[in-house]
From TrEMBL:
Its main location: membrane. InterPro entries: GPCR_opsins (IPR050125), GPCR_Rhodpsn (IPR000276), GPCR_Rhodpsn_7TM (IPR017452). Keywords: G-protein coupled receptor, Membrane, Receptor, Transducer, Transmembrane, Transmembrane helix. It comes from Mytilus edulis (Blue mussel). Signal peptide: none annotated. The chain crosses the membrane at residues 20-41, 53-75, 90-111, 131-153, 199-217, 309-331, 351-371. Gene3D superfamilies: Rhodopsin 7-helix transmembrane proteins. This is G-protein coupled receptors family 1 profile domain-containing protein. GO terms for cellular component: membrane.
Length: 396
């Protein structure tokens, strides 16, 4: 008769490719997120600009990758021999804590982008900051504490793959196994937790969609205004008149506007004081100053678009990679014997899909390096510096 230890050995052998991938992903996550924190804090001074939450997200991803990878590797080698209830609860609490912290940072970043782009003139009061922090902490604590309550060791019996002549031999062939589950023997508590948890996840998903869709629409509107304004200024320069068509522009004003259009670092909706002084109506000046929008610049629109796409892409990756995990958790909690009859390649496939979310912890640095020009520039400098030091070291 096969023992629990021999069953663990067989399963861990099947899951060796998954273990190797988890270890490799852990190394990439640690290296990538350490580089992100170093560049954001030391080079880009992220504590003083819109990137303030990015290094904290990287720190959260670093902790998440270590905790979740350790839990996954231990689970691969103790598939049916979880003996300690406390170890099971601690593992689930830590996993839930670090994962929801990362998700909360993504939510805060999405809200920050929404305020920056859609409501740039709205002042974020200390009261609003405190409320936001309390909401985030409430979600994290609820998920972590609830997990501590409903997680535990489930004891089941499975039949060994041997033939037996009578029922007594079959009963003796039943092998007890101990597995760490999020739902052990707390049916009522789990039903309440599941309802609230699903409501939170749905609300967060809708929040991400609303925030980034509104940001995208606002950037699109600003881009159209920039394009229209650029066309008007070019027309004014071509006709050598002001935008009203009733005053001839001096040569120095035309040269200044031409230089503005050719310089990408300057606002596209640039209007010089000299140009505004051509109008004899102070009302026009006041209306222009009132309608002047500091966001309406070519560079800012492009920068906002890139940043919005970057965080949207990161959020989409999180949603896509977490979906298989949620589906498998639902099936496993609905049927406690869901994974008992699965073995070999199917078990490896399901386990790999279940742990697909670990990809997010090392993909984020790659997304930063591809879509953030300043980060990519600092990363190249750091890489060159490291290569030069290594060459000098080996040349000695």
């Amino acid at each position: 008769m096969k023992t629990m230890l021999s069953t663990d050995t067989d399963i861990s052998t099947v899951l060796i490719p998954n273990t190797v991938l988890v270890v490799f992903g852990l190394l990439l996550s640690v290296l990538g997120n350490i580089i992100v924190m170093y560049i954001q804090w030391m080079k880009l001074k992220s504590s003083y600009n819109f990137r303030i939450f990015i290094p904290y997200l990287a720190l959260s991803d670093l902790c998440s990758s270590i905790v979740c990878s350790a839990f996954s590797i231990y689970g691969n080698y103790h598939w049916v021999t979880w003996d300690s209830v406390y170890l099971c609860k601690i593992a689930w609490i830590c996993v839930c804590l670090v994962q929801w912290t990362s998700i909360s940072f993504l939510l805060v970043i999405a809200f920050q982008r929404y305020l920056k782009i859609c409501r740039p003139y709205e002042t974020v009061t200390p009261y609003k900051k405190i409320v936001t922090v309390l909401i985030v902490l409430t979600i994290i604590l609820f998920e972590s504490i609830s997990t501590a309550v409903i997680s535990g060791i489930s004891e089941k019996h499975i039949l060994n793959n041997t033939e037996h002549e009578n029922s007594s031999q079959q009963n003796e062939a039943l092998q007890p196994i101990h597995q760490c589950h999020l739902y052990a023997d707390y049916e009522k508590e789990y039903s309440v937790f599941s309802y609230i948890d699903n409501s939170i996840r749905t609300t967060l998903l809708l929040s991400f969609i609303v925030f980034y869709c509104k940001c995208g629409l606002q950037i699109h509107k600003l881009s159209k205004k920039v394009t229209k304004s650029t066309s008007n200024i070019k027309t004014a320069i071509y006709e050598n008149t002001n935008l009203d068509g009733d005053t001839i522009l001096p040569r120095e004003i035309v040269n200044e506007m031409t230089e503005t259009l050719s310089t990408k670092s300057e606002p596209i909706l640039f209007m010089t004081t000299s140009f505004l002084s051509l109008s004899n109506s102070s009302k026009d000046v006041r209306e222009h100053n009132k309608s002047k929008d500091p966001r309406m610049t070519d560079v800012k629109c492009q920068k906002y678009r890139n940043i919005n796409l970057m965080f949207s892409f990161i959020t989409i990756i999180v949603i896509v990679t977490y979906t298989p995990r949620l589906i498998i958790m639902f099936l496993d909690n609905s049927d406690m014997h869901f994974l008992d009859n699965i073995s070999g390649g199917r078990l490896l496939l399901l386990t790999s899909l279940y742990r697909l979310y670990l990809i997010t912890y090392f993909v984020n640095p790659i997304v930063y390096s591809v879509m953030d020009k300043k980060f990519r520039s600092e990363l190249i400098k750091l890489f060159r510096c490291v290569c030069c030091k290594m060459c000098r070291f080996f040349a000695k």
